[in-house]
C-alpha cells in the first residue's frame, strides 16, 4: 500500500515538473502569440489537474480554486489545439468559452443533491468528450495541408495521447455514474498516464517549439515573413520556377479541388520537396493559406472593380475556387479585416457622372466641366 502511494506521488511529481517546464518555456519567450499565452494557461491548469487527482483514501484534498482550474483543462485543450494547429493570428477571447462552459456545468453538477446529480455529471462528461473529439477532428482535418514538418508529425501523437487519456477518464467516470465498480488502481493509472503525457509533451513541444509557434504579422492582411534563406539545389530552383509559373501565369489556384499532392504533380516534384519549399522559402505554414492568399487578392481586385459591381459576391467566390460562400467570407475577413460587402462598398470608385448626380450637380455645364 505504501509503495503504491509513493509511486503515485512520484508519478504526479514528474507530471507537475514536465507541465511546469513546458508552460514556462512558452510564457517566458518574448514573442506574445496566442499559442504561447493559451499554452501557458493550459499547462497551469494541467498542473492543477494533476494535483486535484490526488485523493488519498478516495477523499478530495485539493482546494476549490485548484478544482476549478482542473475542470477548465479540457476546454483549454480545445483552445490550445485551435491556436497551435490553425495558426491563429491573434487571441480571440471567445475561444475561452468552452472552458468557461465546462466549469459552469461542473459547478451545476456539483451543486445538485446526490439523489439527482448523476444526469448532470453525465452531461458534463459528454460535453468534455465532445470538446476533445472536436479538437481531434480539427487536428486531423488540418494534417494534409500542414506545411510545417515538425508540427505535422506531432498531430498523430497528440491525437492518440489525448484520445487515450480522455478514454481513461471517461471509463472511470462512466463506471461511477452507472454504479459499476471503478477501474482497479485508477488513481495510480491516472498519475502514470499524466507523467507519461507530461514527459512526452516536454520532449516534443520543446524540441519543435520554435517552428510550432511564430510571431504573427501585425496586419492580418500582410503576407508571411520570408523564411530564412535555404541552401537551394538546382532541383529546388527548378521546382520554384515551375511553381511560380503555375501560380502566376496558369493561375491553378482557381481550381476548387487543388491540393498539395495535385500541385506537386503539376510541377513534377515530390510532395515532400514542395512542402519544404513553400514553407522554408516562401514562408507559408499552411497550404490553404498559401492558396487562399492568391484568391483573396484576386477577390479584392474584383470587388473593387466598377465593371463587376453587378456580379454577386458568391459568383466571385466560386470563380476563384471557393466551394461555397461561407469559407470565402471567413478567409476574406481573416485576411482583410472586413467582410467582402464592406470591402466592395469602401473600395469601389464612383464614376465621375454618378458622383455629380449624387451631389445634385448634374447640369450639362457641370457635366462638360467634369
Report on the architecture of this protein.
With 370 residues, the chain is an all-alpha fold. The protein has two domains: 2-212, Up-down Bundle (Rhopdopsin 7-helix transmembrane proteins), CATH 1.20.1070.10; 234-352, Homeodomain-like (Arc Repressor Mutant, subunit A), CATH 1.10.10. The protein is built from 16 helices and no strands. It has helices at 2-27, 34-52, 64-85, 97-111, 118-141, 149-177, 186-212, 234-249, 260-267, 271-280, 287-303, 313-319, 325-336, 340-347, 352-359, 364-369. Helix 2 packs antiparallel against helix 3 and helix 3 (64-85) runs parallel beside helix 5. The protein is globular and about 80 Å long. The N and C termini lie far apart (95 Å).
CATH A-level architecture of the largest domain: Up-down Bundle
Instruction: Please provide the ordered H/E string of secondary-structure elements.
Output: HHHHHHHHHHHHHHHH
The unreliable regions are: 215-222, 366-370
Using DSSP, what is the number of strands? Answer: 0
The span between the termini is 95 Å
* Name given to the CATH homologous superfamily of the largest domain: Rhodopsin 7-helix transmembrane proteins
Largest sheet: none
CATH fold type of the largest domain? Rhopdopsin 7-helix transmembrane proteins
Strand content: under 5%
Individual helix count: 16
**Helix fraction bin:** 55-70%
Bulk shape: globular
**Number of structural domains:** 2
Radius of gyration: 26 Å
Q: Indicate the structural class.
A: mainly alpha
Mean pLDDT: 82
CATH class of the largest domain: Mainly Alpha
Write the layout of secondary structure elements.
Layout: H1 2-27, H2 34-52, H3 64-85, H4 97-111, H5 118-141, H6 149-177, H7 186-212, H8 234-249, H9 260-267, H10 271-280, H11 287-303, H12 313-319, H13 325-336, H14 340-347, H15 352-359, H16 364-369
Helix pairs in contact: 1-2, 1-7, 2-3, 3-4, 3-5, 4-5, 5-6, 6-7, 11-13
Amino acid at each position: 500500500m505504501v509503495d503504491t502511494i509513493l509511486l503515485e506521488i512520484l508519478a504526479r511529481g514528474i507530471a507537475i515538473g514536465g507541465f511546469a517546464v513546458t508552460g514556462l518555456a512558452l510564457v517566458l519567450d518574448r514573442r506574445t502569440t496566442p499559442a504561447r499565452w493559451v499554452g501557458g494557461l493550459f499547462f497551469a491548469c494541467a498542473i492543477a489537474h494533476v494535483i486535484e487527482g490526488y485523493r488519498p483514501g478516495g477523499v478530495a484534498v485539493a482546494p476549490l480554486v485548484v478544482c476549478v482550474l482542473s475542470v477548465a483543462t479540457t476546454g483549454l485543450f480545445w483552445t490550445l489545439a485551435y491556436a497551435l494547429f490553425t495558426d491563429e493570428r491573434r487571441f480571440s477571447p471567445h475561444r475561452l468559452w468552452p472552458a468557461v462552459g465546462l466549469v459552469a456545468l461542473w459547478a451545476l453538477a456539483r451543486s445538485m443533491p446526490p439523489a439527482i446529480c448523476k444526469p448532470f455529471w453525465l452531461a458534463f462528461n459528454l460535453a468534455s468528450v465532445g470538446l476533445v473529439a472536436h479538437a481531434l477532428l480539427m487536428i486531423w482535418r488540418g494534417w494534409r495541408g500542414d506545411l510545417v514538418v515538425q508540427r505535422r508529425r506531432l498531430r498523430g501523437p497528440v491525437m492518440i495521447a489525448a484520445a487515450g487519456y480522455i478514454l481513461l477518464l471517461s471509463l472511470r467516470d462512466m463506471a461511477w455514474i452507472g454504479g459499476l465498480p471503478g477501474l482497479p488502481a485508477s488513481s495510480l493509472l491516472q498519475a502514470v498516464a499524466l507523467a507519461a503525457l507530461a514527459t512526452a509533451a516536454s520532449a516534443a513541444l520543446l524540441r519543435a517549439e520554435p517552428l510550432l509557434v511564430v510571431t504573427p504579422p501585425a496586419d492580418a492582411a500582410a503576407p508571411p515573413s520570408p523564411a530564412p534563406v535555404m541552401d537551394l539545389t538546382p532541383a529546388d530552383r527548378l521546382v520554384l520556377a515551375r511553381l511560380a509559373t503555375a501560380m502566376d501565369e496558369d493561375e491553378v489556384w482557381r481550381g476548387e479541388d487543388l491540393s498539395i499532392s495535385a500541385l506537386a504533380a503539376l510541377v513534377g516534384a515530390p510532395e515532400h520537396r514542395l512542402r519544404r519549399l513553400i514553407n522554408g522559402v516562401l514562408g507559408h505554414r499552411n497550404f490553404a493559406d498559401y492558396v487562399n492568399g492568391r484568391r483573396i487578392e484576386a477577390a479584392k481586385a474584383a470587388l473593387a472593380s466598377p465593371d463587376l459591381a453587378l456580379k454577386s459576391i458568391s459568383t466571385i467566390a466560386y470563380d476563384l475556387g471557393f466551394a461555397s460562400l461561407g469559407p470565402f467570407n471567413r478567409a476574406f475577413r481573416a485576411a482583410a479585416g472586413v467582410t467582402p460587402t464592406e470591402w466592395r462598398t469602401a473600395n469601389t470608385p464612383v464614376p465621375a457622372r454618378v458622383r455629380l448626380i449624387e451631389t445634385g450637380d448634374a447640369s450639362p455645364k457641370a457635366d462638360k466641366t467634369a
